[in-house]
Each structure stands twice: as C-alpha cells, then as structure tokens.
Amino acid sequence: MAAPKVYLSPAMHMANPCVYPRPDGKQCYEALENNEYIDILEPILNRCGIETKRGYRRTPMNGDNGNAIMKQNVRESDAWGADVHYVSHTNGSADGKGNSRGCYPMYYTYSSRGRKLGQIMAKYRRQIYPRTVKLVARSNLYELYKPKAVSFYEEHVFHDNMDDATWFHTHMKEIAESAAKGLCEYFGIPYVEETKPAEPEKPMTPGELLVKIMNSTGTCGTWELVK
Ligand SMILES: [Zn+2]
Question: What is the pTM of this model?
Fold first, then answer.
C-alpha cells in the first residue's frame, strides 16, 4: 500500500495576535504559532509512515497576501494528490475580548469521510484537552469545500484567551501526538511511538558519551556509545 499523504496547511493570516507571553519575548500571532505546531507535527507523522507536504510559512505582519497563500496551498495539495488536507488554525473570540475557550474543529458538511475523520480527531483531542471539544460541520470555508482531499480544519484553541493560548503553547507535542494518532487510526495504520534512547548493554562509566546519530532527514536516529 502506498504511504498515506497529508498536506499540512498552516494559518496564513497577517495579524491575529495571540495573548500568550512567549518565552522569546516576541509578539505571538496565529500564523507563527501554527507553523511552530506544524514543525512538531510533521516529523511525528513521518515516523508513522505518513508522507507530508507543508504549505507556505507566512511571516506575520509582512506584505504577503493571506488569501493567495491559502489558494496556493490548496492548489499544491491537489497537485500532490493528498489523501487528507490538514488545516491548522487557532480561533478568535466572537466578542473580540478573549472570552471564549474551547476546541471547535471543522469538517466539510457534505463529506462523510470528513465527518468520520473529524470524529476520530475529536476523540483523541478529548483525551488531552481539559475543556470542550466540539466537531463542527461547515460548508462555506474554502479549505473545506475546495480541496480534492478529505479536509480537516483544526481550531485548536482561542488565541485571544490567556488560559487557552497558554494551554496550546505548553502542550504542542501532546496535541501533535493526538493528531497523529487520529490520522493513523483514520488510515488504518499503527501509530509509532517516539523512539527512546536504548539502554547501553553495559553500565556506562564516567566520561563515556552516548550520542544520537541522525538519519539524513534528521527525523530519526540511533544511539551509540562513544568510547
Ligand atoms: Zn501564540
């Protein structure tokens, strides 16, 4: 069986500021945080045997046209022949004051496979997210109705709510792992756990070095003892 293909389409908005006080001191934005999340998700999917291609990394507040980026991502996804088009966004509160919290991912109303994928993804998110996870059907969003692939549209948290934004930034690895588990279940393939360093056969002596030798793509490696 050919490897399943997931196109990763990160948020491409100009602004949409996020309230989380980043350790690096930079202002956070929806496009920035979702690209950081995709950076974590992509190697996890690859270690599970899922092929990935990712969309344009938009720098917040520059002159790029977000709408054009979104359309370009969908064209790439279609041309590549993705099985799943995975959109990664964070939400903004309806009142604009950051009073909303919760996870409201979306699927295309008229796609039964999209609904099935969405239900699986929501099931895994509920295992890690402490607040409401509600799958929502939408028919009028470009990245739901346009891609040839089955589309799934994350709205991980509300980036203008401090509790929600903080949870997102401090749980990106768990979120990515839960998304990977959902995609593996959807494709009917086993989820591959992170490789832990192998225990040396003999006890190590002070001064010995255990090094990880990475493969050419840097996605996995083997541990070797240096004498
Ligand atoms: Zn953020």
Answer: 0.87
